[in-house]
Structure formats: structure tokens, C-alpha cells
């Protein structure tokens, strides 16, 4: 049993400590500087009682993330549970950096369970588990940490709103298609201007500005979104991601799509005013059944009252107010021509059961749902939009849903039905599939990590070249947050899916999948669509042969929670 020392006492002068600290963003404070002062604060507390023998320091992770989602904190907790650990207690430099909200209440019982003390400078020594005062103080520190983070967020949002409304300032990010970034003179802050920092603004791009105007003209002349996209592709005009691939590494560069045309037609920045807040961050629970797991940040389209617009024009408009207003009316459902009547919205009697699961074998794109009367189809019209896809690709590829679902259910029953479980497990084990992790999911996460790291490199280079620190800091914060989320997802994936699965583990997974399959014959369409999702189903249709390749992923099924939800 570890011996405990009294707060400020010297019962065990040779006590061994593990230091824990955290620094959230490299741009606001140098990690080495942050580590230095936190480590010094911890050392001043522990020097009379022992030595710091291990160090755990998280860089680039928000305080809102629970300990199990911070790499170094996770490593520390794993060391705490190790009977052969080299330390007797943990010391932190500043509680507000280590604990956020109720994290102390979630973490301290774990330390107590393994007999590890926690030392905090603000308390003057060891946290006494029997002291209500100590517990209250740590709870207050968590609340202060949470309040501080929220105050910073409100101040940043308020400052960016004011800069948009009153100054029409360009606040960073990708310029809208049709514009490019230009220098707007010295920074209004004299000290920043003395350092050579410049403001930036939008100016019309001579190559893409006329394309934006043409898109509005085509749409107002009666062409639909798809027709506009097809015309631009036919004329060989690069789509936004192909025109500026450096800022659009996350998007395909194979041609215009109706969604890209709509995004341009609905962007109010083409009126010449700066607009900010069209999207906002929202924090959602990672697992609603486990609040202690923390939150993840997602982006949501803002309501009209959250969007702010500059009082004066800040850049050259590409379209007139009259044209923009008319386009919005047409997009909202108004009549396009004298002979065209507004389309009526018809409630779907059945959902698309294979939505998101079916891909075209010719272009690898997902096939979209299409209804003809009461019959549901899936279709691919990539060749209709993108000339480069026309070779060997029919104008439209169709596949009927009901026939495919019947065949699919028979195949699933043949490989995952109750009578086929044993043979399937033997087949997977013999072919080594039990040792296969979710490579596709891991590859996607690795790509997100690499992309975020590339953005950080570009942003830091821009900062070194004299870009506005306030603007670049916002970019770096966003990239850091994306990097943290990707690393968290990778850590969760590593925890969810073992690198190798034994035959027993594989049997349990296949049995769970079999439970889903057993519910297919009696499941209504809505439930059936969810069951296909639970199987991680992927279908590829080959129009030339008429064959459909079907696969389900045991690795993805292993990663799912509550997989026994079949009806």
C-alpha cells in the first residue's frame, strides 16, 4: 500500500510523483513555455516531499475533452492501473488546465481506487478524499475552467461579429468561388502595423468571377441546377475544388455538381457585403448514455438571426441585388417560367432501404434514390454531368430496389442466417479475416489527421509571412480542433476494434450480425434500412453484367454498440 503524506507535511520525503499538464493551442502559448511554468508550479509544491519521476503533457487538446480522450492523460491513467508503476502520486501545475466541469469527480475516484494521491498547488498539497472543502475547491476549479472557456468563446464570437458588421473585415478561411484574397493595407492596430502585419480582403477573380455571373444568368434563363452543372462541365470549366485544389483537398475534383451550383446561388457574399456566421459550432454528447465521455464539436447551418452582414460593401459585388433576390425566390419554389408550375411535395410511402449503401461500379459514386410512381429505383447520372465519365458509362444507370432487396436478403440469410453461423465463422477464420481491423475507417481517419496537419503547416507559414495573427489564430484553432477530433476518433477506433480477434470473439460478432439478419423478413422498411446500416452493408452494381457485389464488415459490426437491436 502506498504511504500517504499530509498536506504540506513530510511523512514520506522520498515520495515519487508523476506530473500532468496540458496546453491546448500552440499559437496562443508556446508548448515549451506552458510546460515550463506548469512544471515549475508543480515542482515548488513537491520538492520538500519527493521527486517528479514521470511527465505527461498533452499538447493541442481542449480542456473540455475528458481524460480518456487525451493521449497523455490516457497514458497516465493506464500507468495508474499498473501495479508496477514508478510513482506514488500525481501532481498538476494548474487545476483549471487539467480539470473541466465535472472531470475531477469522474477521475479522482479512479486514482483513489488504485491508491494514487493527487497533489494540487492551489490546495497546498495532497487532496484529502475525506475533506469536503477540498472536494468543493476542485469542483469550483472545474466550474471556473468551464466558465473561462465559454467566456473566451463568447468574446471571440462577439469580436468577429463586430469586425464583420462595422468594418466588413475578411476573417479568413477559403475565399468564395469567384473571389481571391488580396492585401487590404496595414493592420489598424498600430503595434501590429509596425510589425508589418496586413489586413486581407476579397477581390474579384478574373478567371472565376465571370463564371459566377454566368451561373446566375443561366439559372434565371430557366436552366435547372443539374443543367447548369452539365453546361459548365461540357465547356471544360474547372469546378471549385479543381480550380483551387490546395484549399479543397477534402473534395473530389471531377466536375461540377448541382450541390455546388446551389451553394453559389445561395451565397450572399456575392452581393459585395461581408457575411459571417452562416455555420456555427455545436457541442454534442459523444455518447448520450455516457455523459462522462464528453462532447464532440459539429457544424450546423445557422438560423437567420445568427448570421451577421457588414453595414457597407466590403468588396466588389458579382451579382445585383435584384438578380440574387429573384434566384432565391426560384430556389424557394416559385415558378421558373410561365409554363412551369410549382412542384408539389409528395410524402414518401416507403423509405429508400439501401440509401448510402449502393455504389455504381463504373464511376464508384453512390447511386441516388429515384421514384417512378410507386416503384423505387436507384440511379447514377454521373456521365450526364461530367464528360470525362461518358466513356463506357450510360447516360443514366438504373437499378430497381424491390428485386435487389429480395436477392440481398436471401444472400444474407445464406451467410449469416442461424444455420450458417458456424460455417461462416470457420470460413472467416480459415481465410484470416478474424485478424482484419477496419482498414477503410482507419485510412479515412489517417487522411483527416494528415489533412489537418497540412493545414497547420500552411497556417503557421502564413503567420510567419506577416498574416493577421487574430485571423490565423482562428484558422489554427479550427485545424487544431479537427486534428484533436481525428486523433480522438483514432483512439476510439483502437479501443473499439482489437487488432486481432480470436475465433471466439469472431463468433460473437457473427452471432450478433445473425441476430440482425433474422429480423429482416418481418421488419418494416424503416427498420430494415437501419438493420442494413447495422451490418455495415456495401453494394456495388455493375451495369454491364448486371451483377451486384455485396459485402458486410465484421470489423465495423464489432465497433458498433448495442448491435443486438434487431426486430
How would you sum up this structure, described in words?
There is one protein chain. By secondary structure, this protein is α/β, with parallel strands linked by helices. The chain folds into 3 domains: 15-150, 3-Layer(aba) Sandwich (Rossmann fold); 179-274 and 310-331, Hect, E3 ligase catalytic domain fold (Alpha-Beta Complex); 358-438 and 497-559, no CATH class. Helix content is 43%, strand content 16%. The chain has helices spanning 31-46, 71-80, 95-98, 103-113, 132-167, 190-194, 209-220, 225-234, 240-243, 258-265, 321-331, 382-385, 401-416, 421-430, 439-464, 469-496, 503-518, 525-534, 554-559, and strands at residues 15-23, 50-59, 89-92, 117-120, 125-126, 179-186, 198-204, 275-276, 279-285, 295-301, 308-309, 358-360, 368-372, 375-380, 397-400, 538-542, 547-551. Strands 2-1-3-4-5 form a 5-stranded mixed β-sheet, sandwiched between helices. Strands 12-16-17 form a 3-stranded mixed β-sheet, with no helix packed on it. Helix 1 links the parallel strand 1 (15-23) and strand 2. The longest helix has 36 residues, at 132-167.
Uncertain residue segments: 1-11, 337-345, 433-437, 558-567
Number of strands: 17
Task: Output the strand order for the largest sheet.
Answer: 2-1-3-4-5
Give average pLDDT, whole number: 80
Q: N- to C-terminal separation?
A: 51 Å
Q: What class do helices, strands and sheet pairing give?
A: alpha/beta
- Strand composition percent: 15-25%
Radius of gyration computed on alpha carbons: 29 Å
Gross geometry = flat
What key attributes describe this structure?
single chain; 567 residues; alpha/beta; Rossmann fold; Hect, E3 ligase catalytic domain fold; 3 domains; five-stranded mixed beta sheet; 19 helices; 16% strand; flat; disordered N terminus; disordered C terminus
Amino acid at each position: 500500500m502506498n504511504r500517504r503524506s499530509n498536506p504540506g507535511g513530510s511523512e514520506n520525503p522520498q515520495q515519487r510523483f508523476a506530473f500532468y499538464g496540458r496546453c491546448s493551442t500552440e499559437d496562443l502559448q508556446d508548448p515549451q513555455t506552458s510546460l515550463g511554468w506548469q512544471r515549475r508550479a508543480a515542482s515548488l509544491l513537491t520538492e520538500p516531499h519527493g521527486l517528479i519521476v514521470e511527465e505527461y503533457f498533452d499538447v493541442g487538446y481542449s480542456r473540455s475533452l475528458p481524460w480518456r480522450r487525451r493521449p497523455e492523460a490516457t497514458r497516465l491513467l493506464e500507468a495508474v492501473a499498473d501495479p508496477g508503476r514508478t510513482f506514488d502520486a500525481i501532481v498538476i501545475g494548474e487545476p483549471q488546465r487539467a480539470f473541466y466541469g465535472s472531470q475531477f469527480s469522474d477521475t479522482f475516484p479512479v486514482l483513489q481506487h488504485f491508491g494514487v494521491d493527487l497533489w494540487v498547488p492551489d490546495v497546498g498539497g495532497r487532496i484529502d478524499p475525506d475533506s469536503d472543502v477540498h472536494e468543493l475547491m476542485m469542483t469550483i476549479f472545474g466550474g471556473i475552467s468551464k466558465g473561462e472557456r465559454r467566456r473566451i468563446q463568447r468574446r471571440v464570437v462577439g469580436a468577429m461579429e463586430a469586425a464583420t458588421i462595422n468594418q466588413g473585415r475578411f476573417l479568413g478561411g477559403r475565399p468564395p468561388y469567384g473571389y481571391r484574397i488580396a492585401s487590404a493595407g496595414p493592420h489598424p492596430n498600430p503595434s501590429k502595423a509596425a510589425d508589418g502585419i496586413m489586413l486581407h480582403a476579397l477581390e474579384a477573380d478574373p478567371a472565376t468571377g465571370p463564371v459566377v455571373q454566368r451561373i446566375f444568368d443561366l439559372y434565371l434563363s430557366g436552366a435547372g441546377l443539374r443543367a447548369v452543372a452539365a453546361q459548365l462541365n461540357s465547356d471544360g470549366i474547372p469546378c471549385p475544388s479543381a480550380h483551387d485544389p490546395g484549399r479543397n483537398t477534402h473534395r473530389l475534383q471531377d466536375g461540377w455538381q448541382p450541390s455546388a451550383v446551389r451553394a453559389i446561388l445561395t451565397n450572399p457574399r456575392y452581393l459585395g457585403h461581408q457575411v459571417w456566421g452562416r455555420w456555427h459550432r455545436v457541442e454534442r454528447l459523444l455518447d448520450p448514455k455516457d455523459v462522462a465521455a464528453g462532447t464532440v464539436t459539429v457544424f450546423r447551418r445557422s438560423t437567420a438571426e445568427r448570421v451577421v452582414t457588414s453595414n457597407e460593401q466590403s468588396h466588389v459585388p458579382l451579382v445585383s441585388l435584384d438578380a440574387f433576390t429573384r434566384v432565391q425566390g426560384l430556389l424557394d419554389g416559385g415558378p421558373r417560367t410561365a409554363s412551369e408550375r410549382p412542384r408539389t411535395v409528395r410524402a414518401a410511402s416507403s423509405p429508400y432501404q439501401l440509401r448510402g449503401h449502393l455504389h455504381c461500379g463504373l464511376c464508384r459514386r453512390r447511386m441516388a434514390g429515384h421514384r417512378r410512381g410507386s416503384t423505387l429505383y436507384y440511379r447514377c447520372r454521373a456521365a450526364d454531368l461530367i464528360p470525362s465519365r461518358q466513356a463506357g458509362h450510360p447516360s443514366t444507370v438504373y437499378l430497381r430496389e424491390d428485386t435487389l432487396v429480395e436477392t440481398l436478403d436471401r444472400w444474407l440469410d445464406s451467410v449469416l442466417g442461424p444455420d450458417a453461423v458456424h460455417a461462416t465463422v470457420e470460413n472467416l477464420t480459415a481465410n484470416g479475416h478474424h485478424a482484419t481491423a477496419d482498414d477503410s475507417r482507419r485510412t479515412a481517419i489517417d487522411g483527416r489527421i494528415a489533412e489537418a496537419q497540412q493545414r497547420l503547416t500552411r497556417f503557421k507559414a502564413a503567420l510567419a509571412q506577416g498574416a493577421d495573427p487574430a485571423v490565423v489564430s482562428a484558422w489554427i484553432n479550427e485545424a487544431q480542433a479537427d486534428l484533436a477530433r481525428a486523433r480522438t476518433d483514432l483512439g476510439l477506433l483502437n479501443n473499439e476494434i482489437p487488432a486481432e480477434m480470436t475465433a471466439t470473439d469472431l463468433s460473437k460478432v457473427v452471432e450478433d450480425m445473425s441476430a440482425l439478419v433474422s429480423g429482416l423478413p418481418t421488419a418494416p422498411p424503416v427498420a430494415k434500412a437501419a438493420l442494413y446500416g447495422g451490418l455495415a452493408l456495401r453494394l456495388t452494381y455493375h451495369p454491364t453484367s448486371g451483377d451486384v457485389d455485396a459485402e458486410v464488415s465484421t470489423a465495423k459490426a464489432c465497433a458498433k454498440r448495442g448491435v443486438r437491436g434487431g426486430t
